[in-house]
Amino acid sequence: xxxxxxxxxxxxxxxxxxxxxxxxxxxxxxxxxxxxxxxxxxxxxxxxxxxxxxxxxxxxxxxxxxxxxxxxxxxxxxxxxxxxxxxxxxxxxxxxxxxxxxxxxxxxxxxxxxxxxxxxxxxxxxxxxxxxxxxxxxxxxxxxxxxxxx
Length: 150
Known about the structure:
The chain is α+β, with helices and mostly antiparallel strands. The protein has helices spanning 5-13, 21-32, 72-75, 82-105, 121-132; strands at residues 38-39, 50-52, 57-62, 109-114. The chain is built from 5 helices and 4 strands; from the N terminus they run ααβββααβα. A hairpin with a 4-residue loop joins β2 and β3.
């Protein structure tokens, strides 16, 4: 059944830019790990999905198709209007690179989490912990242990 222009327009209007499933997955994981963050930094280039202002770090959570990742899902090309989609994804990649460059020049550290990386939660948690660091990297004193020392 061929798709009408109206149906395609409706379908595209349903694509969310905030609170997507991949974004919610990462947010829940970070919150369960004890990290706190701000959402969609409006005053920063690219409006990063997660902002850790005290650490001067941001995280973008990208869909593989929309941002042209080099994985299987990101490399697929729609069967219709290929010229349009290749140009659109190309523009997205250029914009992403400009935003990352602007953030890094302003002293921010940037991490991009790809949709395909969400399958391995253990590896994702390790990557996020390595990027964000522990309490010591945030300027807090090390934890104090109470009780007897052996």
